[in-house]
């Protein structure tokens, strides 16, 4: 159910000849690609039920995800739903919408 399952592993041999990697017996370095998400339309977002939360100093997406979903790893659903990728874009007192149907939100936003 996580976004990490969709990541691809790219093997990189650029560092293969570096002394640090030779000493440690490293033959390849795993690099993970950044996941990409759909840009959901306003019509799609309206289909997802939500509850309102008013941002206070100290709030973080992962804390809200833990509180509402009991899984801090789903923080990105809140960020995508509000179209604010980082907490620094939110002012105290601003309304944040927390999707309540996680499955539907994942289908539309991922």
Describe this structure in words.
Helix 3 packs across helix 4. The chain is built from five helices and four strands, in the order E-H-E-H-E-H-H-E-H. The strands form two sheets. A two-stranded antiparallel sheet has the order 1-2. The protein has a two-stranded antiparallel ribbon with strand order 3-4. It folds into two domains: 3-32, no CATH class; 42-109, no CATH class. By secondary structure, the chain is α+β, with helices and mostly antiparallel strands.
- Measured by DSSP, the beta-strand proportion falls in 15-25%
Q: What is the N-to-C order of secondary-structure elements (H for helix, E for strand)? A: EHEHEHHEH
Q: Strand arrangement, largest sheet?
A: 1-2
End-to-end Cα distance, whole Å, is 11 Å
Mean pLDDT: 85
How would you sum up the major sheet? 2 strands, antiparallel
Helix content: 25-40%
Q: SS-based structural class?
A: alpha+beta
Which word captures the global form? elongated
**Count of structural domains:** 2
Please, how many helices? 5
Quaternary state of the chains: single chain
Low-pLDDT runs: none
The radius of gyration is 19 Å
């Amino acid at each position: 159910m996580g976004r990490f399952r969709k990541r691809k592993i790219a093997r990189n041999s650029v560092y293969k000849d570096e002394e640090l990697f030779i000493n440690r017996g490293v033959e390849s370095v795993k690099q993970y690609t950044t996941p990409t998400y759909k840009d959901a339309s306003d019509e799609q977002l309206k289909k997802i039920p939500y509850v309102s939360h008013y941002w206070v100093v100290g709030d973080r997406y992962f804390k809200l995800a833990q509180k509402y979903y009991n899984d801090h790893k789903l923080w990105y659903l809140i960020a995508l739903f509000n179209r604010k990728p980082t907490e620094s874009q939110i002012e105290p007192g601003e309304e944040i919408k927390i999707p309540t149907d996680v499955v539907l939100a994942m289908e539309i936003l991922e």
